[in-house]
Design a protein that fits this description.
With 163 residues, the protein is an alpha/beta fold. It is built from six helices and five strands, in the order E-E-E-H-H-H-E-H-E-H-H. The chain has a single domain, classed as eRF1 domain 2 (Nucleotidyltransferase, domain 5, 2-Layer Sandwich).
Amino acid sequence: MQNQNQNKRIIVATVDERIARLYEARPTQGKALDLKEVATLTNGHENEHERGRPDMMGGPGVRSGPGGSGIAGGPHLATPNETGKEESRRFAREVAAWLTNRPERTDGQTLNVFAASRFLGMLRDELDMPKTDHIELKQGEFTQMPVNELRTHSALLGALSLK
């Protein structure tokens, strides 16, 4: 007799500051998922501030007068840590919009979103809750895990009540 869970379609997303992956899954016999990646969103904001920061006027080594340009004279206002947080916030905003606009994939089912703890709060802040009733946020760092490991990972299966 076939297990009733085997016909159940599960939508899973794994997210961190660098990438979001969307999967369709179905439980298999035993403790595993038949897992298929269906979409990916990458953070285009990484190191954006550094790429957009101006150099000295006239380019490096070129002086515009006796004292040179004052543009490179003082410290930059944004520290690397602040810049990283801002990049993460921007990506959280993008991911929230990306997940919210996926109802055609979920067909009314719950979208189980696993996010790294440091990113979970930012993502929660960016989600427009009335539009995201189908999204359930859960803590879990699975984004960098290969699919063959993810499909049998006990913490993921437990969080999806399949263990």
